[in-house]
TrEMBL record:
Gene3D superfamilies associated with the record: Metal-dependent hydrolases, Urease, subunit C, domain 1
Protein name: Putative selenium metabolism protein SsnA
InterPro entries noted in UniProt: Amidohydro-rel, Metal-dep_hydrolase_composite, Metal_Hydrolase, MTA/SAH_deaminase
Domain annotation Amidohydrolase-related: ranges: 49-397
GO molecular function: hydrolase activity, acting on carbon-nitrogen (but not peptide) bonds
Species name: Thermosipho japonicus
Claim: Hydrolase is one of the keywords in the record: yes
Keyword Hydrolase: yes
Residues forming coiled coils: none
Keywords assigned by UniProt, alphabetized: Hydrolase
TM spans (from-to): none
Length: 427
């Protein structure tokens, strides 16, 4: 049994000052310090914030070795971005690249307070067994929770992609789970979608209407918009994750809402790729459940939440168009979808919830209370976000900024792997 003491607890709903948390794999008890009776192992939060660990609702671990990569790059549209960068990169990823990208990503996630990752994977040189490679590195060795899928695409051997998803879906624990991965409409034929629909009946994880290219491709080839096309094959299943939806129509949003799917926003990536920004107000109007990811662009999820908060105000042309409550709702939904797939309770600091906790130092320069705690988090804590402790499933993965792994050796080996990969890509 462990305890965090002298904590400012905030789980985006409840704020408690000078509290303790008693936990093992799950939270057993919380309360004011005057009621604390001790524990075998104690972590002193020293009056700092204790938050639930972040969940990233859509990411790409395989992008780890893209940092600093220099390839000829002159895109005229979104598909050029894929063909000139991402499809070149993922086509050359094998087991070693997948393994070390996941190790490095796991360490970076810990440093940034991320405790659960919903990943969308692609690797042309390792399809079979690739998801288990990620699970072994990220969950078994690093200690984070992960929900994985393989990006089924006509660029790869479709049957191998399908089998990899189906095989991984057979294994599940509170630390890992599977979804069925599809790339995007523009890389999926009708034959592939029909095959997937017949062989698999559960939720999917797919990019949808990320760019106008995806929409125009679907309309020109099939006479349907992207999300309507997925529905034609019965693939809009409850608890599916539809990433982006920047160019989704009103009719498509209504369909997403009706089918109880989740949209994963990735605004930093959208801005970086210049594909536009999603219309959150329209999604909210049509009762769509929205979560947030980072699309594999970096590891600083606090930054992603800030970019979401500010960009949605800009998109709505008003400082009132996106509120604290909107951001709280998206954060809550992201915990909800991860909880559903892992079959645990994430996102609250209450008895019975998973002990996935982070301690974040913060000295408020102005009064702090339950009424303004979220304002301090957005404009203060997230602005200089550096957790000192990260706990997942009751295990301390980082203590006083020290990660309990051979970090230097992992990065040394990862650099060698990256160098070899870049040589292949530049041939």
């Amino acid at each position: 049994m462990k305890a965090i003491i002298n904590a400012k607890i905030f789980d985006y709903e409840n704020f408690h000052e000078n509290y303790y948390i008693i936990f093992d794999k799950k939270i057993n008890d919380i309360g004011p310090m005057e009621n604390f009776k001790g524990a075998p192992q104690i972590i002193d939060a020293k009056g700092n914030f204790v938050l639930p660990g972040f969940v990233i609702g859509h990411t790409h671990i395989y992008s780890t070795f893209a940092r600093g990569l220099n390839l000829p790059f002159n895109p005229l549209n979104f598909k050029d971005i894929l063909t000139q960068l991402w499809w070149k990169l993922d086509s050359q990823l094998a087991k070693e690249e997948n393994y070390y990208s996941a190790l490095v990503a796991g360490i970076e996630f810990i440093k940034n307070g991320v405790t659960t990752v919903i990943d969308h994977h692609a690797s042309g040189l390792q399809i079979k067994g690739s998801l288990n490679t990620l699970k072994t590195a990220l969950c078994d060795e690093i200690g984070l929770r992960g929900i994985f899928c393989f990006e089924t695409s006509d660029r790869f051997n479709v049957d191998e992609c399908i089998n990899e998803n189906l095989e991984f879906l057979k294994t599940r624990s509170e630390m890992h789970a599977g979804l069925f991965g599809l790339h995007a409409s523009l890389s999926l034929s009708d034959n592939t979608l029909e095959k997937v629909s017949k062989l698999y009946k559960g939720p999917i994880h797919i990019h949808t209407a990320e760019s106008i290219d995806d929409v125009e491709d679907s309309l020109s080839k099939y006479g349907l918009r992207v999300i309507t096309r997925l529905e034609k094959f019965g693939l809009l299943r409850e608890n599916s994750i539809l990433a982006h939806c920047v160019h989704a129509s009103v009719e498509e949003l209504e369909l997403i809402s009706k089918k109880n799917c989740f949209i994963a926003l990735n605004v930093t990536s959208n801005m970086n790729n210049a594909v536009g920004l999603p219309n959150y107000r329209l999604m909210k109007k049509h009762n769509v459940k929205v979560i947030t990811g980072n699309d594999g662009l970096g590891f600083n999820f606090a930054r992603e939440l800030l970019n979401l908060y500010f960009s949605m105000k800009l998109k709505g042309n008003s400082p009132l168009s996106f509120s604290f409550d909107d951001l709280k709702s998206i954060i809550s939904n992201t915990y909800e979808i991860a909880s559903k797939h892992l079959n645990i309770k994430l996102g609250k600091i209450k008895p019975g919830y998973a002990a996935d906790l982070i301690i974040v130092p913060y000295t408020p320069p102005t009064p702090l209370n339950s009424e303004n705690a979220f304002g301090h988090v957005i404009y203060g804590l997230f602005d200089n976000f550096r957790p000192s402790h990260v706990i997942v499933n009751g295990k301390i993965l980082m203590q006083n900024y020290e990660i309990k792994l051979q970090v230097d050796e992992i990065y040394k080996q990862a650099k060698k792997v990256a160098e070899n990969l870049w040589k292949k890509l530049n041939k």
